[in-house]
Design a protein that fits this description.
globular, two-stranded antiparallel ribbon, 137 residues, 4 helices, 26% strand
């Protein structure tokens, strides 16, 4: 198994492409119609973050599934590592943050910048989201 962070540049285009070329990769209802909202079966039950039409997914995939995603327009593995148990996500995120281009795409979807919020006592505090949006156990 391979843990990977998949970046989807244009979810609507991805769904259209999959529906035409890999219809089994999309969840369907009892009448075989595309479920709404569309669900990519390989992304179901995995941590994900959405910003507009862009998506990041932390997925655990078989090698052949990862190779299939590599051949699909609109989807790109920003980083990946063989699943070896505890510590795998550190390898995946470490690889991601070492690659400037991958980090730029990641930051387009997941905002890690500090935010000033009300502290509830009439003041403000600065909070920073974690660098990782999600991992799998």
């Amino acid at each position: 198994m391979i843990d990977a962070i998949i970046y989807v540049e244009d979810f609507h285009s991805l769904v259209t492409y999959l529906n035409k070329n890999y219809p089994d990769m999309l969840q369907r209802d009892e009448n075989n119609k595309l479920s709404q909202p569309p669900v990519v079966t390989g992304f179901a039950r995995t941590p994900a973050v959405v910003n507009g039409n862009n998506i990041l997914v932390y997925a655990r995939l078989r090698q052949e599934e990862l190779e299939k995603y590599a051949s699909i327009p609109f989807a790109e593995a920003l980083s990946q590592a063989e699943y070896t148990g505890k510590g795998t996500s550190d390898k995946v995120y470490g690889q991601l943050f070492e690659d400037e281009s991958a980090t730029e795409k990641y930051d387009l979807v997941y905002d890690r910048s500090p935010k000033t919020v009300d502290d509830g006592d009439g003041g403000t505090i600065t909070v920073r989201p974690p660098d990782k949006f999600g991992v799998l156990a």
